[in-house]
Specification:
It contains six helices and no strands. It has about 100 residues and is mainly α. The protein has one domain. Helix 1 crosses helix 3. The N and C termini lie far apart (about 40 Å).
Length: about 100
């Protein structure tokens, strides 16, 4: 889902589109990851164009649904902790 939203942002011709850093804040991802995805899209956009044709423009409702699924997976322990969350867990377990 995030890949589709970044591709949508990257290919937008709208003069009012947000900056890369602002877009990453809205999506809740790192600016570094956005840059990595943009490099991927620049090198070979064919997969993303195929997804665009098959699924259409991504919506924030789809993003909300994907975030809910992610949170449920996190609660069930199916996802690893972020590096920061792992450091916090270790810090608080030692003290």
């Amino acid at each position: 889902m995030i890949r589709r939203l970044v591709f949508w942002w990257f290919t937008s011709r709208n003069h009012t589109k947000p900056s890369g850093r602002d877009w990453t804040r809205q999506l809740g991802i790192s600016h570094t990851w956005l840059q990595k995805l943009v490099r991927e899209f620049t090198a070979d956009p064919s997969e993303m164009w195929r997804l665009q044709v098959a699924r259409g423009d991504p919506t924030f409702a789809q993003l909300s649904h994907a975030r809910e699924n992610t949170n449920e997976m996190r609660e069930r322990g199916e996802l690893r902790l972020s590096r920061l969350a792992e450091q916090k867990r270790k810090f608080w377990s030692e003290n």
